[in-house]
Amino acid sequence: MKHVQALKSTSIAGRAPKVRLGPAGLHLFDRASGINILVDEVSIPPEMWAIGPRNVSIALTNTCDLDCPYCYAPKQPASLQRDRLLQWLTDLDANGTLGVGFGGGEPTQYPQFSDLCRRVSSCTSLAVTFTTHGHRIDDALADKLRGHVHFIRLSMDGVGRTYETLRRRSFKAFLNSIRRVRGISPFGINYVVNSMTLNDLDRAAALAADAGAAEFLLLPEQPARGRPGIDHSTHDLLSEWVISYQGCVPLRVSEAGAFGLRFCDPMPSESGLRAYAHIDAFGVLRNSSFDAGGIHIGCGRVLDAINALDSMNRSVR
Fold first, then answer.
1. What is the CATH architecture of 50-315?
2. Averaged confidence pLDDT in the chain
3. Residue whose C-alpha is closest to residue 8's, from 93, 17, 41
4. Would you say residue 5 has pLDDT above 50?
């Protein structure tokens, strides 16, 4: 694999990128800049493909001080043990995973959250990201996170009164949260789309652009807590909005909500657990945060759970 040897010696802005081998080719990733380079002309033998998912999301805790009606997170108390979590992340890092996204619940309510981010960024080559409502990030926490987080996703469902109705928090306070987050790392806006938030899309996208967001992530509402998820007419209107969008902030969409929307998948050959996995606050490895089934990792290795879940997935196809 002479191509691999040569590319391992390259650098991005003076830093050696992380190299991941897979069916899509040779993937180079720089966590500080977010630059991804895919060399798809290189054919990688299957025995050299990375075992770990390209990205993994982890619900650190089910605790959250908000109670959004469309939230999918379980409400039973649960929280991951930190030393076991760090071992999982060390194994994933060594086996080709590029990034970890912390969520919940609200990840900033996880004990010693800033120290966890510091340890992961210092002891692994994983990109550290997290999703937050933003209201718990004060100047002190921002100072602790700076330099140890590579991307932050801020949840903003609706603008102004819509936001305040759904999240029961001041929209002005949320705008202050954007200011603090902007001083920590690059950030994006997460936006749940349903019949209540659809009409605010234009204003939300404009706000994201004015605030300097790096992306605008659409999350068509999924069925949860007895709610049916996004209805067909709202989904059709969302599709029309995506087609006509001319904003400067790049659009993204959740994998669970991507059906029927015009988005490009740069690595269609890396699907399923090769692309993504989720670990909930009970320590259960799942195909996604919305998936009902999974494998409890327990005291075992996370890679063993990945192999077991992959076998389970293939047996039901």
1. Alpha-Beta Barrel (3.20)
2. 92
3. 17
4. no
